[in-house]
Amino acid sequence: xxxxxGITATEKLRIKMEKVATDLEQQKKLNPQQAxxxxxxxxxxxxxxxxxxxxxxxxxxxxxxxxASDLRKHFDSLQPFITAIWTP
Length: 88
Known about the structure:
Blueprint: H1 13-26, H2 32-41, H3 49-60, H4 68-86
Helix pairs in contact: 1-2, 3-4
């Protein structure tokens, strides 16, 4: 089933994030540097990639529990993206 931005339910999280980052940049909700940082965070060789995967596990895996300091660190790197998503 197709969804907004051409995102499908079966696509990997990194692809979804890249498409959303591009859309948010086009809407001027992220500046080019912020969008680039999000795209970079989704790359397999990125130092942030484990953060994205881990945050996904916090949501989808009932056996993964964040430590408060880790959650803050992960969120800090993604905050502009998450804020842009929730801003009308």
